[in-house]
Model the fold of this input.
Amino acid sequence: GEDVEQSLFLSVREGDSSVINCTYTDSSSTYLYWYKQEPGAGLQLLTYIFSNMDMKQDQRLTVLLNKKDKHLSLRIADTQTGDSAIYFCAERFPSGGYNKLIFGAGTRLAVHP
Amino acid sequence: DSGVTQTPKHLITATGQRVTLRCSPRSGDLSVYWYQQSLDQGLQFLIQYYNGEERAKGNILERFSAQQFPDLHSELNLSSLELGDSALYFCASSPVSGGPGLDRNEQFFGPGTRLTVL
Done:
């Protein structure tokens, strides 16, 4: 099946950690991605994780992958007001000889002082 | 700035009309993807072209068509427009075909064209 689910909204205080969660359904996914969309802008790739990894850290970003539960999370340490945006989880899996990207509905992160 | 450009930025038109959205990929990228982002459907993949040829199709309506030209820019044509076609249309480009394999197929998104159908 092709379904990526995310909670729609998250509110955090500046300086705290944010954790955005995502579940996906296709176990044949090869890569999973996190994209960020700021108001009025296109999607920007933040980070990705290959399916044989459990964790990936990139500066303030930590991605955790639980393949058994098909659960992906993005942790943003020391969240800043500039992190306010919509975050999309996406999975890439083979379909018809090619790879498709399926996106979740996006989680709107609001950072308040 | 991703290096992907889209024109126009905004488009307002009436039901029944036809419009063309244009995308220029990043220099050197051979793949172009089109997505539709609406409030009720989220981000939906429409179609992919690789080096001038259609490579993959998603949830693209028959009223919609696309092509990729020899200079690699792409156009998305939307005809017989309906109110429900109002959305943000994104183009993304990638250096790879997205075929079988383990390349991570990073896609670089343009700023989008906001289409409003009245």
Summary: Chain A touches chain B at residues 30-31, 35, 40-45, 48, 50, 88, 92, 94-106 (CB under 8 Å).
